[in-house]
Amino acid sequence: MKVLVTGGTGYIGSHTCVALQAAGHEITIADNLSNSSPEALARIARISGTRPGFQALDMRDAPGLEKLFDAQCFDAIMHFAGVKAVAESVADPLKYYSNNVMGSIALFDSALRHGVTRLVFSSSATVYGENSRSPIREDAPVAPVNPYGRSKHMVEEILTEMCRANAGLRVMALRYFNPVGAHPSGLVGEAPVGTPNNLMPYLCQVAAGRLEELTVFGTDYPTPDGTAVRDYIHVMDLAEGHLRALEFLESHGGMHLVNLGTGRGTSVLEMLTAFQRVNQVPIPHRFGARRPGDTKETFADVALADRVLGWRTQYSLDDMCRDAWRWQKMNPKGYE
Ligand code: NAD
Ligand code: UD1
């Protein structure tokens, strides 16, 4: 298939491009490089032997999208492009509605007019309400608590209504839990700008000596060891989930919402212990207060992904820690 990958130079998009090319698909990436580097293209090429097509493009640039769809015919779109920092979304909500919602509308509008009917969308477990009981099923109440989460849910709603209005559409929104890790080659990975907020990149930078110590946020949660529990999923498993979604849409129309997680919860302490054991590197850490807005426990019910996609995760927590650290060691400053 010929696939347009928006946001394909970013963290999850770049891994999915590697998987798409390995499966024989031809890809074109469209990205405005606001949170990624063109070096990712060279890295994807080093792993797969093929440099993907690339177009520097903002999703809100309607004439630019029009030109792209006029010039190339696509069988499907994987839509990763968007902004994703929760705290920033609270401080600058318009940035989130503009990039994530308006950008998606411009993309869908152009795609529809050019007859592209298959689409996979990057959604997030953030759309679920804070009080959802884990394991969280796809039919759990949706109640995002910040502009980022709301922007993702809005796009899901837009896609649902587009599918209702147009019987020919085939769409899957994938709700990712906590993506971590990197390609086992260490050539592509997550390159956060500035000090990372998320646990795994923070652990990596402490291990590398770039940050002094990890603060474990909260030790009094009602969980077995008192620290918060999440569903970390290796980015390679996530990439494979996208391939399965694309295959599924070959024979299924309408709108589909599917969780991508492991179905297992891991606490902050378990992650910290695994990282030190697997990589044989000490992580200076201290115990601090809860981080505002955090839930005690979030992990996915993955029965639907198993049933409809025939997909289950293959990579372990140890793989996530090993691959994240390899990427960090090989690329201390990301793609710089
Ligand atoms: P990323 O920032 O690494 O990748 C996103 C890419 O989109 C970047 O390359 C960026 O330059 C590009 N981009 C942003 N706004 C754009 C615009 N208006 N036009 C064109 N390109 C634009 O993020 P990621 O972690 O790879 O996330 C990919 C998608 O998955 C995002 O939509 C994100 O919201 C979603 N998601 C990510 C996570 C996560 O933890 N990483 C979890 C759930 C959902
Ligand atoms: C966060 C986002 C979520 C997004 C996800 C992407 C918030 C509130 N939520 O989820 O919307 O989809 O990232 O992966 O920002 N932790 C520490 N010390 C640290 C960093 C994190 O103890 O320095 C703990 C956190 O308190 C949490 C766990 O590690 O319990 C995971 O945190 P993080 O990686 O930021 O992910 P989420 O908060 O689950």
Q: What structural class do you assign from the helix and strand content?
A: alpha/beta
Q: In CATH terms, what is the fold-level topology of the domain at 2-181 and 232-261?
A: Rossmann fold
Main sheet specs: 7 strands, parallel
Shape: globular
Structure explained in plain terms:
This protein is of the alpha/beta class. It has a domain at 2-181 and 232-261: Rossmann fold (3-Layer(aba) Sandwich). Helices cover 41% and strands 18% of the residues. The chain has helices at residues 11-22, 39-48, 62-71, 86-91, 93-113, 147-165, 199-207, 235-251, 268-279, 303-309, 317-330; strands spanning 2-6, 26-31, 53-56, 76-79, 118-124, 170-176, 178-180, 214-217, 229-230, 232-234, 254-260, 266-267, 285-288, 297-298. The chain has a seven-stranded parallel β-sheet with strand order 3-2-1-4-5-6-11, with helices on both faces. The protein has a three-stranded mixed β-sheet with strand order 12-9-14. Strand 2, helix 2 (39-48) and strand 3 (53-56) form a beta-alpha-beta unit. The longest helix has 21 residues, at 93-113. The mean pLDDT is 97. Nicotinamide-adenine-dinucleotide (NAD) binds at residues 7, 9-13, 31-36, 58-60, 80-84, 99, 103, 122, 124, 176, 179. The site of uridine-diphosphate-N-acetylglucosamine has 19 residues, from strand 7, helix 7 and strand 8.
Task: Tag the structure with descriptive keywords.
single chain; 336 residues; alpha/beta; Rossmann fold; 11 helices; binds nicotinamide-adenine-dinucleotide; binds uridine-diphosphate-N-acetylglucosamine
